[in-house]
Amino acid sequence: MVIKGKVHKFGDNINTDDIIAAKYLDSCDEEFLGAKCMENVDPDFRKKIKKGDIIVAGKNFGCGSSREHAPLSIKGAGISLVIAKSFARIFYRNSINLGLPILVCEDASKIGKADVLEVDLKNGLIKDLTKHKIFSSEKFPLFMQDIIRKKGLIRWIKTRAEKEKNERV
Amino acid sequence: MGLTLIEKILKKHSQSGKLEDFIYAKVDFCFGNDITAPLAVKEFLKAGFKKVFDGKRIGFICDHFVPARDLKAANNVKLLKEFAAKFNIKHFYDIDKCGIEHAFLPEAGLVKPLDLVIGADSHTCTYGALGAASFGVGSTDLAAAMREGRCWFRLPKTIKFVYKGKLPLWIGGKDLILHTIGKIGVDGALYQVMEFCGPTIEKLGMDDRFTMCNMAIEAGAKTGIIEPDKKTAGYVKKMNPKIKEVKLLKSDKDARYSQVIEIDVCGLEPQVACPHLPSNVKAVTKLKKVKLDQVVIGSCTNGRITDLEAAVGVIRGKKVKKGVRAIVIPATHKVYKEAEEKGMLKTFCEAGFIVSSPTCGPCLGGHTGVLDKGEVALATTNRNFIARMGHPESFVYLSSPAVAAASAVTGRITHPDEVIKNC
After folding, report:
1. Per the CB < 8 Å rule, is A66 touching B136?
2. Which residues 150-169 on chain B approach chain A with CB closer than 8 angstroms?
3. How many CB atoms lie within 10 A of CB A150?
4. pLDDT, tens digit (0-9, with 9 covering 90-100), for B374-419
5. What is the pTM of this model?
6. Residues A103 and A158 placed together within one structural domain of the fold
7. Are residues A64 and A78 in the same domain?
8. Rounded to whole angstroms, how far apart are CA atoms A70 and A79?
9. Which residues pair with A81 in a beta bridge?
10. What is the rounded distance in angstroms from the CA atom of residue A155 to the CA atom of residue B88?
């Protein structure tokens, strides 16, 4: 799958309170959460996004709480991919479980604000069309690739349960 | 090559019986709260699952926005209550006899050493203090675990933190963990386990141990853990008299650690984390000029009985500075009752504190103490991110209960010695 979009750049340690404020956590509605995404960091964030755009951030993106509302709000805001130098672990697993594409890229800081990227999720290659550069990203472990291929945890466990049932038969 | 405690627990629960990079492990208990569990319930129903793996091993603990702060919060509690009734989930708790999940579950005897626990809340790492492997996860993880009783993990590396030296007066678990996070940073233990050990930890009481493991997530850790000992066994038996024998386990002497960090606690001053990161830690005496609008004593980090005792020891016979809102939130129903029986709530009230019912409340800017623009708070909570307690232009400092109590009396960040000596 190839994703093309404009970059919205953030720094290090963007936490889940930044991504979606706790006061909105009584909602599970992706669109509502999307409208409030990054509100405390950039009140106009939602207005700046064109569907398919990409977030590029520094280290420890998504630190703090376990709220799955954070990746949900990013999806709801129309973001198609998050690239960061590193991710906080619960955000990382939530994204995989929900099917929000994420990539760990050591060179994330070299990607510029408003650059246009073309990213091949299959091989993890990030083409910076503005800077005419190519960056690589970390490969996911095999089992995670499997969850990603199934588009999230729920479909993965359903397939797995089915497989285990067949094996027993 | 030997194994660390966390590796031993993961191996015991691993479906394949092996320690591989990818572990599919059986969970002894899984739970969520009034903001994460509704999302899990919706995922569960959307997936078309018809039954849960074991209703006795699932918990819904309503603590974040309760008693319901508004209609949406009320609706979430109702949703969980109805789901719990339909699927025979034994451990559904509204506000009756529970409280903040991470203080309540150990107190209710629902977690014991060597268990594998997952919770849809980042501070699930708290139970590492009992020698359990406990991991914060998301709502989809919870939905899957409710159905399957299993969860996926990557095998983590472990950093060993060895604490040595006699604890100075006023120094407890909160100071140790803030000092540690200040040293390694908010991603200093990313994806790794923090194992706390050494002579100082052996002497720490259970509440201080809970505080330390609770904030492992603030250094990016997968969890925190302390080898269970006689104190742990005593605590577990007291909380759940049905448990007659508590199994204890230690890391092997030749276990592999990614790093060993030694920390000498001699001469350590009370620690305070400044806005807007838990790693932005300074000694309390460097912050004497910071004036406060609000003081909060409570949360899953520091709302237990010994936390309230420490605060009471400082404020007894004194008054909260005029103009400061001082809020104390016993973490659970049991803590509330015990504090009441010991006359502590009276002491708080006489000093000018207001006592709230158990809730996470202001810790995450939910209710019962939200800050307005420009306001400054000192809290015994765990995070001080931008807008964590309310307005994006408010400021949160984090400290121990003793420092928070002393600061409520003076209206600025204060070393407890200053308040005690002046009486």
Report:
1. yes
2. 152, 154
3. 16
4. 999 999 999 999 999 999 999 999 999 999 999 999 999 999 999 9
5. 0.97
6. no
7. yes
8. 12
9. A54
10. 24
Query: Out of A41, A86, A141, whose CB is closest to B187?
Result: A86
Nearest residue in chain B measured CA to CA from A65:
B122
Count the domains in chain A: 2
First-to-last C-alpha distance (Å) of chain B: 57
Q: Cα–Cα–Cα angle for B146, A69, B184, nearest 5°?
A: 95
Residue A122: its pLDDT value, please? 86
User: What is the phi-psi region of residue B220: left when phi exceeds 0, alpha when psi lies from -120 to 50, beta otherwise?
Assistant: left
Q: Residues A123, A83: one domain? A: yes
| Contact between A65 and B121 using a beta-carbon 8 Å cutoff | yes
Instruction: Give yes or no for residue B273 having a pLDDT over 90.
Output: yes
**CB contact (8 A) between residue A66 and residue B122:** yes
Average pLDDT, rounded, for chain B: 97
Residues A95 and A157 in one domain: no
Query: Which residues does A67 contact at the CB level (< 8 Å), separation at least 6?
Result: A16, A20, A22, A25, B35, B36, B138
Q: Is the pLDDT of residue B253 over 60?
A: yes
Which A-chain residues 97-126 have CB contacts (< 8 A) with chain B? 97-98
Which fold does the domain B271-421 belong to in CATH?
Answer: Aconitase; domain 3 (3.30.499)
Contact B122, A66 (CB under 8 A): yes
Which residues constitute the domain of residue A149?
Answer: 142-169
SS3 B348: helix
Residues of A whose CB is below 8 A from B186: 13, 60, 63
**Contact state of B42 with A15 under an 8 Å Cβ cutoff:** no
Is residue B12 less than 8 Å (CB to CB) from chain A?
Answer: no
Ranges for all domains in chain B classified under CATH 3.30.499.10: 5-263, 271-421
- Residue B380 contacts residue B174 (beta carbons within 8 Å): yes
**Average pLDDT for residues A36-56, to the nearest whole number?**
95
Architecture of domain B5-263: 2-Layer Sandwich (3.30)
| Among the partner residues A41, A89, A154, nearest to B47 by beta-carbon distance | A154
Inspect the interface and report whether the beta carbons of B122 and A98 lie closer than 8 Å.
no
Q: Which of A17, A65, A89 sits opposite B190 (nearest CB)?
A: A89
Instruction: List pLDDT tens digits, range A138-147.
Output: 988 888 888 9
pLDDT at B422: 56
CA distance A132 to chain B (A): 32
What's the CA gap between B32 and A68, in Å, rounded?
12
